[in-house]
Write a structure and sequence with these properties.
CATH architecture: 3-Layer(aba) Sandwich
Strand order of the largest sheet: 3-2-1-4-5-7-6
CATH class: Alpha Beta
CATH superfamily: Vaccinia Virus protein VP39
Oligomer: single chain
Structural class: alpha/beta
Helix content: 25-40%
Number of helices: 8
Number of strands: 7
Length: 215
């Protein structure tokens, strides 16, 4: 087991509780997402965590596959699917680069609250582009730790950065801005169709982007 997997396994125990303070942001992002979903869509929820978003969207789409590197996150997500009777949702421990995910096989790929934590964001967006069908949608919401935040959140981020520096938190936590996400998507050959900066105690950037046609 990698250090990242071990970290997220431990974090899963209190993950939903710790995210409650940002529920306004999460709810707003999920509401924005719902406007882009169709009953015919096959969706990949990349970095699905405890499965809250997947279970909420299940009734609006044909199928959702939720993946996460944490087996404990997946265990909690699977229980949520049972509780919510979300029969068209499948959760599994997996990485997006695994060969079982075929090119142009998804109508929509979601990535909520995780682009600021992956080792190589550009590599991720290229892979997402590869997995999306022509005109497929990439929908993300990313904490922008390089922008406005409350004093309390600022203190917490400073603590997190110290813990990252000493290896206590074994994942990168970037202080990105919304412009960084715009640039990332443009280089990943996506065309933004909707974006919104959401703030309540902390800043988050919601984006819905369409896979561009290659010329």
């Amino acid at each position: 087991m990698s250090k990242s997997e071990e970290f997220w396994d431990k974090a899963s125990k209190n993950y939903d509780k710790t995210e409650e303070r940002f529920e306004y942001i999460h709810k707003k992002a999920r509401g924005n997402t719902q406007k882009h979903l169709k009953e015919s869509h096959v969706v990949l929820d990349y970095g699905c965590g405890t499965g809250t978003a997947s279970c909420e969207f299940a009734s609006q789409v044909k199928e959702i596959r939720g993946i996460d590197i944490s087996s404990e996150m997946i265990r909690i997500a699977q229980q949520k699917a049972i509780t919510n009777k979300s029969e068209n949702v499948n959760f599994e421990k997996a990485d997006i680069f695994e060969s079982k995910f075929q090119k142009e096989s998804f109508d929509v790929i979601l990535a909520f609250n995780m682009l600021h934590t992956v080792p190589d964001p550009r590599n991720i967006t290229q892979r997402i582009n590869e997995l999306l069908k022509p005109d497929g949608l990439f929908i993300s919401a990313t904490p922008c730790l390089g922008q406005e935040m409350s004093f309390l959140v600022s203190l917490q981020i400073q603590l997190v950065r110290i813990l990252c520096k000493f290896g206590v938190i074994p994942i990168p936590i970037r202080r990105v801005k919304s412009t960084d996400i715009d640039d990332l998507l443009a280089k990943g050959e996506f065309e933004t169709i909707e974006s919104e900066e959401i703030f309540k105690g902390a800043s988050s950037y919601f984006v819905a982007a369409r896979k561009s046609h290659k010329t």
